[in-house]
């Protein structure tokens, strides 16, 4: 039996990719799962796995979401690639607000419940780019580095209340977001999508394949089941950060 059995979980960016894989894994482990996404299709997806769907722009207030949450998975994210001097300022601010600001506001929203019960799990889906940088990804890298720091603060504050806080930092995951990047770069560079994966995306990964969303979800569940692991970042990156 998993530690999440009988608990309530909330996963953001849950209509596809990592978020959906996490929601499925938590549901299969016996948790009641709330799925949050900007995509209205999240309601049907939630019904399919026995959860509850919420359509919300996470750059807006989160008060409409349930606060009685025992497991929070902050996953929602977007990507925009451009050199700093050409990066739209409003785009930078919006990305940081979605990936870092929303994580803060949701954590703040659910912590009183976790503290009152003496148990809680905060899992933030960071990225290898929360530990390393790549050119042309200033907003994404800044937001993910900030998320790593925020998670450590939450770990220190939450420890006396039975609440752990950790990050999962994957490399490139087989998600719609990454598959779109592969297709776009194939067109820009005039090479095949396979060559984009091997020559560009996986250049710094020792294991030359994309990570599956289910593998990230496995890491999330592992962190939920461990009460002594907190304030850390679990790199699921194929050896990228070993260099």
From TrEMBL:
<dbReference type="Pfam" id="PF00106">
    <property type="entry name" value="adh_short"/>
</dbReference>
<comment type="similarity">
    <text>Belongs to the short-chain dehydrogenases/reductases (SDR) family.</text>
</comment>
<dbReference type="InterPro" id="IPR050259">
    <property type="entry name" value="SDR"/>
</dbReference>
<dbReference type="InterPro" id="IPR036291">
    <property type="entry name" value="NAD(P)-bd_dom_sf"/>
</dbReference>
<protein>
    <submittedName>
        <fullName>3-hydroxybutyrate dehydrogenase</fullName>
    </submittedName>
</protein>
<dbReference type="InterPro" id="IPR020904">
    <property type="entry name" value="Sc_DH/Rdtase_CS"/>
</dbReference>
<dbReference type="InterPro" id="IPR002347">
    <property type="entry name" value="SDR_fam"/>
</dbReference>
């Amino acid at each position: 039996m998993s530690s999440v059995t009988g608990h309530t979980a909330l996963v953001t960016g849950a209509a596809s990719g990592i978020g959906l894989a996490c929601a499925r894994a938590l549901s299969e482990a016996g948790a009641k799962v709330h799925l949050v996404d900007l995509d209205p299709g999240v309601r049907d997806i939630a019904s399919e796995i026995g959860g509850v769907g919420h359509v919300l722009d996470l750059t807006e207030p989160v008060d409409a979401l349930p606060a009685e949450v025992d497991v929070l998975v902050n996953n929602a994210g977007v990507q925009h690639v451009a050199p700093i001097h050409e990066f739209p300022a409003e785009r930078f601010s919006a990305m940081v607000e979605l990936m870092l600001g929303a994580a803060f506001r949701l954590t703040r929203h659910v912590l009183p419940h976790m503290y009152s019960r003496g148990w809680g799990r905060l899992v933030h889906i960071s990225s290898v780019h929360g530990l390393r940088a790549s050119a042309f990804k200033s907003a994404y890298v800044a937001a993910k580095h900030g998320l790593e720091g925020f998670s450590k603060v939450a770990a220190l504050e939450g420890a006396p209340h039975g609440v752990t806080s950790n990050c999962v930092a994957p490399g490139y995951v087989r998600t719609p977001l990454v598959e779109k990047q592969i297709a776009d770069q194939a067109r820009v560079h005039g090479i095949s999508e396979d060559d984009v994966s091997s020559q560009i995306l996986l250049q710094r990964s020792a294991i030359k394949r994309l990570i599956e969303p289910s593998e990230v979800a496995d890491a999330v569940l592992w962190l939920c089941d461990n009460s002594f692991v907190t304030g850390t970042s679990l790199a699921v990156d194929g050896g990228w950060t070993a260099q």
